[in-house]
């Protein structure tokens, strides 16, 4: 597999790992999303100064307002964070 195919597989597996721990298998509940952020993006949470920012991030993930994060919403988060990191890294 190519690097991009591997990355896509990792995204899918990561989402499925956390989405399958409680409730629906194809969405992340708020607690599943928080657990995923804590384990998979610890640097992001460490850079966040307060809990309200984390809650705002989690609320922002739920673009359709159904109180869950589906795979499309998850991918948008990863893409947005990747763009932010790419822009920051390109300036160094």
Automatic annotation (TrEMBL):
GO terms for molecular function: calcium ion binding; calcium-dependent protein binding; transition metal ion binding. Keywords: Calcium, Metal-binding, Repeat. The keyword Phosphoprotein does not apply. It comes from the Eukaryota. GO terms for cellular component: cytoplasm; extracellular exosome. CDD domains: S-100. PROSITE patterns: EF_HAND_2 (PS50222), S100_CABP (PS00303). InterPro entries: EF_hand_dom, S-100_dom, S100/CaBP7/8-like_CS, S100_Ca-bd_sub. GO terms for biological process: endothelial cell migration. Residues 49-84 form the EF-hand domain. This is S100-P.
